Automatic annotation (TrEMBL):
Keyword Signal found: yes
Signal peptide: 1-17
Keywords: Signal
Keyword Signal: yes
Organism of this sequence: Actinotalea fermentans
Pfam families noted in UniProt: PCuAC (PF04314)
Name of the protein in question: Lipoprotein
Length: 158
């Protein structure tokens, strides 16, 4: 099971907010209020706030997680037919110097694709984000129920 007592202790100590860790070169990047939408299969999204505590922009370019075969950076925009369409972000998310970048339903988010197990409310998911300078940031995200705009989190082409 994805949730473990160790992860629960880490999340409790962090106030159930995800936090960045790793070496100081981690770009000073942290992720606060990280959460993942509960689902039984397929794919889902990671949301929260990327926080840059340095004086230089940080570019988040990739991610990995044991909870999913693939992790991709995505954005949501209005399609030609007026529907919301998710598309991969090839250039990554820039978190401005001493600033933030929001990951939210209906906007930028991190996709967990080809899930390895159902994600139940209360579970926790570990992810590792990678920056352009090849620094990694570990994230613990709480799984929760979210009805929102009934996003399906399926790519536009399939």
């Amino acid at each position: 099971m994805i949730a473990t007592s160790l992860l629960a202790a880490l999340a409790l100590g962090a106030g159930l907010a995800a936090c960045g860790s790793g070496d100081d070169a981690g770009g000073g990047l942290a992720v606060t209020d990280a959460w993942v939408k509960a689902t039984d299969e397929g794919m889902t999204g990671l949301f929260g706030t990327l926080v840059n505590e340095t004086g230089e922009d940080v570019l988040v370019v990739a991610g990995t997680s044991a909870a999913a075969a693939r992790v991709e950076l995505h954005t949501t925009a209005m399609g030609e037919d007026g529907s919301m369409v998710m598309t991969p972000v090839e250039d990554g998310f820039t978190v401005p110097a001493n600033g933030e970048h929001e990951l939210a339903p209906g906007g930028d988010h991190i996709m967990l694709m080809e899930l390895t197990a159902p994600l139940e409310p209360g579970d926790e998911v570990e992810l590792t984000l990678e920056t352009a300078d090849v620094t990694t940031v570990d994230v613990v995200a709480v799984v929760r129920t979210f009805a929102g705009g009934q996003e399906e989190y399926e790519p536009a082409d399939g």
